[in-house]
Amino acid sequence: MTSDRRFEQDLPSLLEDLYIGPMPTYRDYVLHQTARTRQRPAWSIPGRWLPMDDIARQPVLVPRLPWRTIGLGLALLALLVGMIAALVVGGRPHLPAPFGLARNGLVAYASGGDIYTVDPVTGNSTAIVRSPETDSNPRWSRDGTQLAFERNPGLVYVVRSDGSALTRVTPEPLSTIDSYAFSPDGKEILISASVAGVPSILVAATDGSQIRQLDVAMPATNATWRPPNGSEVLFMDARDESNGYGSIHVVSATGGTVRTILPSAEAAGRYRGHPAWSPDGSLISYGEWTHAPGNNVQTHVIAADGTGDRTLPIPPTAVWQAPYGWSNDGSRLFAIRGYTGGVDQARPVAIPVEGSGFGIEIQYPGAIDTAGVSAWEWAPDDSSILGKPTSAASQVLLDPVAGTSRTLPWTSISQPSWQRLAP
Question: Is 103-421 a CATH 2.120.10.30 domain?
Fold first, then answer.
């Protein structure tokens, strides 16, 4: 037998020996240790009781939402956000704009040295400020949330609409206070008063924190904020108070260079007074007169840059017409018109600003005196005009459309002031 033949016969047994391999010497030790260890229970193996093969083979399906459902969900979310926003906004008081038409609120007035508010519809009055001192001339802020009033001698105070939070805004008494008015944002009060005997303009913070004098380098009076934001102040030069006021000027509310709108015409024998802004701040009304015998004042309207001066017309038989205040929509002026050189036939009138006619004269028993240039005020909705004639013990209400008037039931010695409410 050849060697090749012998190798072929022995090859299977060799391969079997290689496959089994040598037995390790520690085999018996390993078997001994594992035999003593308890096996894991079959129930704890998920594969024994869950159909793992079926689960692994099943596709995971994500449900598809229709676009209608998605849109409905977004709409509900937007509605929820809107409701939350409405609740937040609804918790804040809704305030009117400082200028333009508004809803009628309460009328503030002084009586017996105290400050009252009254509902002009029901006539029900409420005393909101009582004190041993004499308080007078309450003036509403443009948003209807505050009142300013004068407390003798020569002090200006501010309270909330219900009379709370009494705050003194003038640290020292002023010898003479001619007028005062809230800024459009209600944070400051513009005061025309005498300081050391000189007509001056002061700006006081409504929280009482500070007061400053507006430096205009001249005696000044009849100061008013310019609508709509009060960035400028209109005033008149008061150098020659005995003859009336001549020049009309404007200055920044923070001070600075004075800009002359209308220079003095005293050399020509003409004098001016009671300038007032239109509600949009584009026009200025004022009265102009001469020192001829009798009253001859006329109502003028001029652009804010001093151009386009014009006189509003009066009937041929009328003699004079004195301006008092703009309607809130800016279309009419309230004036008092006289048919003699005196006030014996004087009548209140609402005249169109564009000069298209003589306006509507309002019937009033007796004569309307011209004293107290700020003693008339349009209702916030322009439906009526509230006034305090110097010859009457009560305020009166004028209808600028029907041309009628009526006396109001409350007794007042003060200028009128009507609260503005949001429409």
Answer: yes
